[in-house]
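#data-curation
PF: Archiving a pair of folding outputs for the training set. Convention for this channel: one message per protein, sequence first, structure tokens after, nothing in between. First:
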Amino acid sequence: MKNKGESISQSQYAEIIGNLLHLMSFSIPDFAYAVSRLSRYTQCPSQDHWDALARLMRYLRGIMDYAIKYSGFPAVLEGYSDANWISDSDETKSTSGYVFTLGGGVVTWRSTRQTIIARSTMELEFVALEMAGSEAEWLKNFLANIRAPDVTG
């Protein structure tokens, strides 16, 4: 929820969120939603936001030895998308996300607020599918251009 009081260490919070956004973009897809949500409160974080950030950091410490492994078999591009309905009164737009895997490992992902205000769950799921479809088309063309004939299906 939005902070209605004084901000607590805004500059430190913003610095940590920036580092997490960078980490999320290049290496760890599974906490994209949490970082996306926490980044919305960078201008005025409360103690609750700091507590959530501390939980996220503990989670990261627990998965430091994990890695994404690419088996190469089957070399099929798979994609998944989802969206959520507005979860609380502070929100006016839903959140969409997708993840694509190739050879058993994640190759691209995204979690973002939708640009429209959906009137139904079906509408917001279609918006999420359109976002994922655009990424799938780009990935298909990219894979075709690097001459990987067994993954362009």
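PF: Second:
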Amino acid sequence: MSKRVSIFGYGITTKPLAKHIKNAVFYDDKCREPYGGIDGSFVRPSSEFDPKHSDLEITSPGIPPFNPLIKKAQNLISEYDYFANVRNLKIWISGTNGKTTTTQMMQHILKDKGSLAGGNIGTPLAELDQKAPIWILETSSFTMHYTRKTAPNIYVLLPLSPDHLSWHGSMESYVADKLKPLSMMRSVDTAIIPEVYKNTSTRAKIITYKDEADLAKIFDIDVSRVLFKGAFLLDALLAMVVDKVLFDRVSYKKINSFKLDPHRQEECRDTKNRLWVNDTKATNLDATIAAVKRYDEHCIHLILGGDDKGVDLHELFDFLKDKKLHIYTTGSNKFKLTQLANEYAITVTQCKNLQDAIVKIDQNLLKDETALLSPAASSLDEFSSYAERGNIFKEAIKKLS
């Protein structure tokens, strides 16, 4: 008798599972009336889920632990667990910032070995070719929270800072989920993690690093030959390190040919040749700190603000207080940001919106200074996405005269 499989959430990650699971039933919070889904599946309101009529539940990673579906489930696994029996080499990449770029860079380097990239990066596991020898998976803390029986062959962890705390409940729980794969890895597996987590219990071989310089020294990589700087240097080095671990090779030409996605420290100049940087994808503190570090040789005109999801911002201002900068606050948390800037004695201008901030910076920006949009917050309070925020920023810079 085949198992009765329930799938929580009818979205990008879960829909492709219908190709692998006959008569799959999806339960979705947005569904009001039952209807037929793709590939012979069924979609029902979440309220109709009954654990007595389900032998296995697979959840969309974004559904939080306090959702009624999760609380009622008795046989809950992640999509990673469902594909645990796919016999290939699996590389998981996680961290607070940089996991997408690291995954993309690693795929760029390893594609000659037949690798495929997926997971949180955009391609669900259900759509990846199971015959591919290597899966490179950007892996979120949400996914790892629900993963119970599978683990990577290589786990790459970037530094951690507060993120998704409302979902996880606390920083301790967030870190615990990020470190969870280590507890399930085998002695033949390898984990490359920040040194602060060196005492985490695991059977895997652990390689720890303090920073970019330490990582380059451990693997004998000449940083001067790597074109990426700032936050992207660590991403590049981690991609190169995995290539060296697996295939004992280092290719500066290959990593330097990688092209970054837009909206991450994307530089543009106005008609006066002044530097403006679109870092709209910096939606948390650590990403903004990394961007400021890159451009702090000169005075920075820093645009902050948006939906910070209740994160404590003191860590950011502790870092900014000794920098030469002028803060321009926007978004739903602009009053909180302005108050903090005043508390830390940082020059601040409260703005009506992003366009107003650009106008004010235009009046103050000198030729050897940098204007930086690195909000440390989500865009969804005023924009449809971080990309829309970044595109509006870039279009406004083009129109400056």
